């Protein structure tokens, strides 16, 4: 099994810049120039939507307060921005298991393990990708693949600052969904550094 490398890109990252970086890393992974890699970051505020003609999840997207980017993942509209931990996984599934659904479930499991350590009883919901706390959604996932090398990944709402922009859209196209974050669930502030450490350990456990 390949080693897993983690890179912390920091905060306020331009979405297109990181997207270009992912495409470059996918090619480098295909050429076996790098190991499987997880990128951690916080994006500058941006709304994204996957490969779909249905943009209703963005509502009146021309009036949204931040840029909208259409990207090469599955799924409806979502928000990325400060207070949210994004993890992009550049993994070669030919050296693991060539199953994109299993890859999604593995990313969900890493989030669930991390949240359990914080005392948050997170779960999956049948038929819906993501991680939930009761009826509240705390993490969204969307992935792409190139020759069985993955890109994109997970978005975990950590701090309360991540929540307000979701009110302008229908997150992931799910009517009436309530978004939550780690701080709201544990009722105390938490640093991104602490959550990155938990997620690093959980991802290492899942993708050992």
Descriptive notes:
There is one protein chain. The chain is of the alpha/beta class and 208 residues long. It has a single domain (4-206), classed as BirA Bifunctional Protein, domain 2 (2-Layer Sandwich), CATH 3.30.930.10. 26% of the residues lie in helices and 28% in strands. The chain contains four helices and eleven strands, in the order βαβββββαβββββαα. The protein has helices at residues 15-30, 100-117, 182-186, 192-206; strands at 4-8, 36-41, 46-49, 68-70, 78-80, 84-90, 123-125, 128-133, 136-146, 149-157, 178-179. Strands 1, 2, 6, 7, 8, 9, 10 and 11 form an eight-stranded mixed sheet that branches. The longest helix has 18 residues, at 100-117. It is globular. It starts with a strand and ends with a helix. 38% of the residues are buried. The mean pLDDT is 92.
Outline:
By secondary structure, this protein is of the alpha/beta class. 26% of the residues lie in helices and 28% in strands.
Note the main attributes of this structure.
208 residues, alpha/beta, BirA Bifunctional Protein, domain 2, three-stranded mixed sheet, 4 helices, 28% strand
Shape: globular
Structural class by secondary-structure content: alpha/beta
CATH superfamily: Bira Bifunctional Protein, Domain 2
Give helix and strand order, one letter per element, not per position: EHEEEEEHEEEEEHH
Helix content: 25-40%
SS field, number of helical segments: 4
In CATH terms, what is the fold-level topology?
BirA Bifunctional Protein, domain 2
Strand content: 25-35%
Number of strands: 11
Main sheet attributes: strand count, strand direction, barrel closure: 8 strands, mixed
Cα gyration radius (Å): 16 Å
CATH architecture: 2-Layer Sandwich
Tally of individual domains: 1
């Amino acid at each position: 099994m390949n080693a897993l490398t983690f890179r912390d890109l920091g905060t306020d990252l331009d979405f297109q810049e990181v997207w270009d970086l992912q495409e470059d890393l996918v090619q480098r992974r295909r050429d076996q120039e790098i190991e499987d890699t997880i990128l951690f970051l916080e994006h500058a505020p941006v709304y994204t939507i996957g490969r779909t003609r249905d943009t209703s999840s963005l509502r009146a997207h021309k009036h949204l307060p931040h840029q909208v980017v259409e990207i090469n993942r599955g799924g409806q509209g979502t928000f990325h921005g400060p207070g949210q931990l994004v993890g992009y996984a550049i993994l070669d599934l030919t050296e693991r298991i060539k199953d994109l659904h299993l890859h999604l479930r593995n990313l969900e499991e890493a989030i669930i393990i991390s949240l359990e350590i914080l005392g948050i009883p997170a779960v999956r919901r049948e038929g819906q990708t993501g991680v939930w706390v009761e009826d509240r959604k705390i993490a969204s996932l969307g992935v792409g693949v190139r020759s069985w090398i993955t890109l994109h990944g997970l978005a975990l709402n950590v701090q309360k600052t991540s929540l307000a922009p979701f009110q302008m859209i229908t997150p992931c196209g799910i009517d009436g969904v309530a978004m939550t974050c780690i701080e709201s669930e544990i009722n105390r502030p938490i640093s991104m550094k602490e959550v990155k450490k938990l997620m690093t350990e959980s991802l290492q456990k899942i993708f050992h």
